[in-house]
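Retro notes
What went well: the complex prediction finally ran end to end.
Inputs used:
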Amino acid sequence: MTSPQSGGSAPDKFVPKATPETQPYWDAAAAGRLDIQRCTACERPFFYPRTSCPHCGSEKVAWFTASGRATLYSYVISERPAPGFPTPTVIATVELEEGPRMMTNIVDVDPTPEALPLDLPLQVRFEQRGEVAVPVFAPIDGGDR
Amino acid sequence: MSGQRNNRDVVIMGAAETDEVGKLPHLSTLELHTQSARRAIADAGLTKDQIDGLATVSTPGPVQVAHALGITPTYLDGTSVGGTSFLLHVRHAVAAIRAGYADVVLVTHGESGRSRVGAPPYPRQSDSPLAQFEMPYGVMGPPTTFTVPTLRFLHETGNTLEQLAEVAVAQRRWSARNPRAMFREEVGVDDVLGARMVAYPFTLLMCCLVTDGGGALAVASREFAEAHGTDKPLVSVLGTGEAATTPMVSQMEDMTTCRQFTLSSQRAFKEAGVGTTDIDHLMIYDAFAHVPLYGLEDMGFVGRGESGAFVAEGHTSPGGRLPMNTNGGGLSYTHTGMYGMFAIQESVRQLRGEAAAQVDGVETSLVLGNGGMFMSAATLILGRG
């Protein structure tokens, strides 16, 4: 995990560390699921993981598996080299089908404004970094609904 | 007016920046604080032993700054919510002075943002919310995060990329008149759009400088200032506001508007008893070129979608009806990392009539500060006399 891999996909990318309240999110990601939370009192979903609802304040919150579908809300195409990342890298905020937004990368796309119109339909994927899997998004191609 | 508080009862009686701003590898972070603090105390006509309050951000912190100066404060404020913190320090100082907690509060800023002398390392925590939900995505500082909302803003408001570039163009017209500014050469829209790309749609000339420097203010009651100060014009703190929303830019409720700009400015306007048309001079924290566009719209100086044209038509430029960022701003004057202090300093200079690019007849000036990446904000409305 600490030794540099020759030809490895992304040995130096930043690897986040979970806290107790975010552990279910990262566990789900490692299993290939995008799990987020919903308040069972007011029924509204939210992101990032918390132990109370940011809308109504209730502590009755439950995890559920999101569809993984999203649309491109806003982004930059970064030319600043980050460890392990290609240059340029698309740093985006996407809007999940369920409503909440999250930061992510758009992958498997030409990193140009022309290929990245706002509201572009996207689907989640998971990028393995050691034992951690990080959710990223790619455009849904024509046949893939 | 009976029953209402006189809102000219607390004043800025002293203000100064470090002797130089820019690239200062011979001055530590702490020295940038203490040098500007000594200059501000002298500017106020005071001695250090008359200072009983100290406010600054958490690093190096008010205790360290006070101790280095030989001051034993009995009022402390270490509010640290990004580059706007110094505006909050002024707001809190006003309340403290009215409450009788302090006679004179010294607000200090010093940052070796460029040379990193005696400066704290950048945090490397890997389990904060920011570390878990933004840092995994190849973000490399503010140029790659603070900028993310912009394409949605342009898309929904109808402002254009060329108008975004006009913000940088307008501010060079001001910095060209300011010998202390780092970048003084006037530029055109094509120069801005053609500069090296940092993070599309932002080119280098749409991003702030990274410099070393400091500044300090002495805030006191009018009564104290008139009894102990100099003959320099006093600057009244007419109205103030503060607000915060999200620590992560990706969690903004709506990326086309900055809610804390609206909330903090509404409070300041209400307290000052003035409206946008009463403001003669404006400073909007410009870490990046889009921030003044949000500020103009979110504070109500222009309607939604009108900020880009307003700047492009020259209304914020020299000779325009709403002179903005008249020192050249963070884009062209200086930007140490936490720029808010320099925005306040320029408002004070304009109100005193001692600015490098002096605007005629400035009676009322508004300063809007931003903290973090659209995280927090504060507003000060300042008046001459």
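What we learned: Residues 29-44 of chain B form the longest helix (16 residues).
What to try next: split runs per interface for comparison.
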